[in-house]
Design goal:
The protein is mainly α and about 160 residues long. The chain has helices spanning about 5-15, 15-25, 30-50, 60-80, 100-110, 115-125, 130-140, 140-160. The chain has one domain (about 5-160). The protein starts with a helix and ends with a helix.
Amino acid sequence: MNEDIKNNFLRDLNQYAGIIHRVCNSYFADPDERQDVSQEITYQLWKSYQSFKGDSKFSTWMYKVALNTAMLHIRNKKRNIQNESLNEAAVEIPDESSGRKDDMRVLYAAINTLDDLDKAIILLYLEEYSYEEIAVMVGITRTNVSVRLVRIKKKLEEKIKQ
């Protein structure tokens, strides 16, 4: 592989490494599983890097690959272990003030109760992606994103109040 491609990939990967961490922390409770999926996401990004055409932002493409890889891992895991709950994911929150950190834990705990698609949509929304970008990444229409976000926000508000 061309050295320029390798260097470009590493530059892009390092610039947006937080995407991989957010996806893994949101979907997987077990630290070993998070590490495994993180490596798989990185591998999938590398494997498909040359096919990235630049039609969207690199971060949008990276999110799509990361989410698809995480969801594929979950589907495969569900096939192998039928009764395991994926909604008890522990979330690591970056160091912040104590109150904000507690608020973030509550928010992410509520997010972890959502189904996989809703979880992906709200995480992308929190990352300030447009409805169009979210629609492309998760494979639904912009209108569906809008409707789902209204419902997701209401669910989260109810969960947080509990």
